[in-house]
Amino acid sequence: MTEGPDRVRPRSRTPSAQDSPGSAQPRSESGEAGGLDEHGGDSIIRRLARWGSRLDLGDAPARVVAHLKSQILSQLGAARAGYGHPLGRRISQAYGSPLQEDPRHAVHSLSMATVCLDFDDTAYAGHLSHSTVNVPLMYASSLGLGGRALLTSVLAANETAARITAAATLGPFRGQTAGHTHLAGAVAGRLRAENASADTWAHALGMAFSVPTWSLSRGFFSTDAKVLVAAVPVQIGLSACDGARFGLTGPEDVLEHPQGFLHRFADVPLPEEAVAGLGSLWHTETFSYKIHPGSAYTSAAVDCAVELHRALAGVDQRDITEVVVRGSIFTAGLDRIARQQRIGPDSSVAALNFSLPYNVATALLTGSLLPADLAHPAVDRPDRWELAARVRTEHDPAFSRHALLATAPLGQALRRAGERAEAWVRAIDARAADTLPPAWLEPETDFRWATKNLGARVTVRLRDGRELHVERRSAVGAASGAEGTDHAALARAKFLACGGDPEAADLVGRLEHLSPEEVRRLVGLALAGPYDDHSSRPPADTRVTRDVRDIRKDTAMETAALEEAYTGLIAAATAAALGDRPSVPQPGERDADWTLAHVALSDRLLASTARQVLAGDAAGLDNGPAMDPKAIEELTSSVDRDVLVELVRRNAAEFVGLLARTPQNQRATPVSVRLVGDQGEELFSGAVPWGEIVRLRAEDHLPGHTGRLRRIARAPQES
């Protein structure tokens, strides 16, 4: 389950998961129950083309637009780091600078530079930005894109590429090896920038996915051949765009056809993933942002080592007898693959990137991991290799459990696969299969609290018998659910640390308002470097034009207070789940498991009511199933607390996501309410405005549950 190719696995055709206390039927792009064929037999590509070609920035919530700007700025930082490295300088010598006049050649070079140090960010699913950002950026000048159009193009490319990648993610290619991501990213990024028709999209995607690339581990993990993994499919996608614009055709059903892409590139094809929740399930907000170059599977271990560096002040590295990294199956699997190579000072950048011992040793000794640490003279330092030789990795089932519960890198796909997931995971590694959450845990319907929990625990053992250790549930910058991450600050710091111009960072911050001239200036400022003679830098113009169009649609119900309440609740629930032993509530209070199960079941009922209100149907709410002792006992006895926390997070996101699509004027919709106590006694029966129910949830119910969970987390535990 590593970030690279594996042998193709036998496909499982087991029926999907049965209904259970936490399950729901698969939902279509509208959020209603249904399958792929309810749209008149339209192919996946046709549905994506019709939606993506009409997508506007105003269709996305403000939080998604904020991610777009962080994604672009962070990717520009990765570009600067790449071109500033000796490998990047060779790329610019061979393929030219990113500021050359021909956008096709420019994006070819840029896609190699941004991938070469593994300093790019990740989403569910895929390393999107090598195509979804690079293509619109490099075509911006020739097409005269303003900032709003640029952001819209990146959004359309992200959503198209991530969805198709997710549909094939239970297969031999994940992470950077999934070159097919960039077939979709290049086509969607360019054609949305050109305002091309849905027909052009469909034929370009059909052509591109008829000739997908297949990465081989022999070159990817140990040589500079890795730099082609995105650049080649980007060129295929751009060529497909050229042909489609002049009438060349491709098969619209190439993704789902028995002789098509998913049946060749996925062990467990998930066509539903490509079209689920169009317009409401935003893959763009699943981004995790890297602050160190290297695989996401090593990031948390490096973060731990950075923190341990301070504790090791004054300790001679020769007094370190052993460094033990405990992590998930992803971390352990990558380390196993990397150790098959002979890695040393003369190894390729790709090999160094994947070497957990070298990266952890470097961070322990220096307190950081920088692009310069992947080049001479840093890699020549004997102390790093001596310490790296004393680093070993162990698989920790608890970390695998957290990783597979999270949205990324595989959790959402595993939930979509249902019962088919276990056979696929077990064929790869039985240890991981033993940590799988229940098959009935359903896919997420809203990604506002997406997670990527690839954690690690690093223990340093000293000659004098002392042990120092640091543990992280996820890497710095990773999608972390309700805890959130200041991705804008992380992206800016990364860009500036890579030598980026502060003015360029400021321009990205207000990108939706920039004119085409200002976008051209942004690209020139952001990518100017030693490979460039600065002749292409545009003249300074600090004016910022304002797009008078309102990019937000403010007709929906306000959810800020409710989201804040859920943020506190999920944080408290996560804290309550950290202990291994059952916690003791105060006298007269329910325990943490009861509270979590009750909240999860309540939110499922509220989501059902929200769908009724949204559809204009007669709406009702009966809290009986969420108070039923038998239902709560059935749920709490069948899963551990981590799963209960995950249910709370997912059900809350679904509920809030439905409210965010509900018109403000439906706050007054009367809802027939029946409330019962924990003994089944009726407490209230009558009509209540929907907006009042939501207000009480935010201001009364959730804070009460949050307070209980916090008290439980602080209480002494049973021995």
Description of the molecule:
The protein has 719 residues and is α/β, with parallel strands linked by helices. The chain is 50% helix and 6% strand. The chain is built from 31 helices and seven strands. The strands form two sheets. It has a four-stranded mixed β-sheet. It has a three-stranded mixed β-sheet with strand order 5-6-7. Helix 6 (134-143) packs across helix 25 (516-527), helix 14 (296-311) runs parallel beside helix 17 (356-366) and helix 27 packs parallel to helix 30.
State the end-to-end CA separation.
37 Å
Strand content range: 5-15%
Summing up helix and strand content along with how strands pair, one would put the structural category as: alpha/beta
What is the number of E strands?
7
Strand order of the largest sheet: 2-1-3-4
Oligomer: single chain
Tally of helical segments: 31
Whole-angstrom Rg: 25 Å
What does the largest sheet look like? Answer: 4 strands, mixed
Mean pLDDT: 88
Global outline: globular
Helix and strand arrangement:
Layout lengths: L43 H11 L7 H23 L1 H10 L7 H13 L13 H4 L1 H10 L3 H21 L13 H13 L4 H11 L8 H4 L7 H18 L15 H5 L5 H5 L20 H16 L8 E8 L1 H10 L10 H6 L1 H11 L15 H7 L2 E5 L1 H9 L5 H7 L2 H9 L1 H4 L22 E7 L4 E6 L14 H11 L4 H8 L6 H12 L32 H18 L14 H24 L3 E4 L1 H4 L1 H10 L2 H20 L9 E7 L5 E8 H25 L5
Parallel strand pairs: 1-2, 5-6
Antiparallel strand pairs: 1-3, 3-4, 6-7
